[in-house]
Amino acid sequence: MKATAKAKAKKMVSAFQRIWIGLSSRLSSWLTSWLFRLRKMALPSRLSSGLAQLPGGLRLWISLLSLGFLLAALVGNGQQLLMIRLEAQAWCWLALAVGVSLLSLVVNGLAWGVIVGQLGLKPRWQPLVANYLTSNLRKYLPGGIWHLAQRVQLLRGEDAPLEQPASASRALLAVLLDPLLAAIAALALVALGGWQGGLGGLALLPLLALHPRWLTPLLLRLERREAQRLDIKVNGSGQQTLAATPWRSLLALLAFVLTRFAGFACCLQALELTNSLAWNDWLASFALAWTVGLVVPAAPGGAGVFEATLLLRLAGALPEAQLLAVAISYRVVVTIADLIAAGAARWDLGELRQHEAGRRIEASAE
Predict the structure, then answer these.
(1) Is 318 helix (H, G, I), strand (E, B) or coil?
(2) Helical packing angle, 279-295 and 305-313, nearest 10°
(3) CB 114 within 8 A of CB 248
(4) pLDDT tens digits along 218-255
(5) Residue 123 carries which DSSP code?
């Protein structure tokens, strides 16, 4: 009975692998075409209409495929996962992973401040980063856009963490540049893994999109699409804000991705997998999986997509049970970090409001 169940589980894993690889190859082909025809920036009409006709939409099907693949992998490797025992030192590494992941969230908030500054807005750093961290939890809500909506509303509001509230167009531009530049920075790290059958060279191509000639039309299209999704009226364009390549913002987000990987590396250390691959291979694989989890429309927070991509990317290089263990532990670590960061930021905002209210009272008394 056990052998039969194990054989069925292996068949399920194999089936999901074939489905996911097929989907990934189609996605990769589309990305390649998009990079070489960046000015058009639109899916072919037949493909767009075909995706729109999927019951429940493309997001639902990618989520189901990713989570189904993980579930099949968990069933097939359940016994090996249960055999993993963590010693005290491993728990210390996981605790350190939570701390480093917390640091990466702060770095991400600071990088967003750099983006805001490059757009000609003057941020008030403490409330800006704190509000960024509190909005981060909304990425786990169904739809995957509510953290973006809150940030746009934040920059436009009277209490914006800026010297002056931003216009709708500039606020939306600041919000869109964050994930776009983060994805470009992460893909550049994929090249550190070597040629990889051409993937290393392909991953560097999005850097060309940083030139204002390409970045401006791309952002204008994204701005129109997201404004419609978020029900925001945008007047004018953001072309005047893109006179120079946003290198500072890119470097800031590169620091964020590297700090994110440091948290992942702590999980590798906890499970004693650091010697299984060279560090540049680990970094390249993590960067690819993280980017796919960021840009592919799927489950809230990229849950399932990151893990499935990591498993498929390193299939054959390591036992699947070990990859599952590190992927699951990293998911738990970053979720805990998100919760702690949001709670601490909310408390900090409360203290900041009380301090500002006290200053107003003192000023009025004088």
Answers:
(1) strand
(2) 140
(3) yes
(4) 888 888 888 888 888 776 544 445 678 899 999 999 99
(5) B
